[in-house]
Write a structure and sequence with these properties.
It is built from four helices and six strands, in the order ααβαβαββββ. It is an alpha+beta fold. Strands 2-1-6-5-4-3 form a six-stranded mixed beta sheet, with helices on one face.
Length: about 120
């Protein structure tokens, strides 16, 4: 089980990494076999599955997203905790609200993520 304190610290670092726009710092949070599902993959990559698997496939998507939104800045609103997962609730791009479920592997890295938005 992830403690509330651990979840809050992870979320703060995760937000700071994204706000730094440093792709390597962002990717440090994720396992090599990381799987990401988000409607933004459909919009940015024109991949109708909305899912990318493996850091080597997620990295170009995030690089493209950061390029398209050079002033990207996330704002942490709240964190919710469960067993081997947490939800980061944050203000995302263009004022959208997002809730991202992050699942952790035994290595402590995120191995799966599902992003949800209040509007697409």
């Amino acid at each position: 089980m992830i403690s509330v304190l651990e979840a809050q610290e992870f979320a703060r670092e995760w937000i700071e990494a994204w706000n730094s726009h440093n792709i390597d710092r962002i990717l440090e949070h994720y396992s090599e076999d990381f799987e990401m599902t988000t409607p933004m993959i459909v919009l940015v990559m024109n991949d109708q599955t909305g899912t990318l698997k493996g850091k080597e496939n997620v990295k170009p998507y995030w690089e493209k997203a950061l390029e398209k939104v050079p002033d990207l800045r996330f704002e942490l609103l709240d964190v919710f905790v469960s067993v081997n997962s947490l939800v980061i609730y944050y203000k995302a791009v263009f004022g959208k609200l997002a809730a991202e479920i992050l699942f952790f592997g035994e290595d402590g890295k995120v191995n799966r993520s599902i992003a949800h938005y209040n509007e697409i």
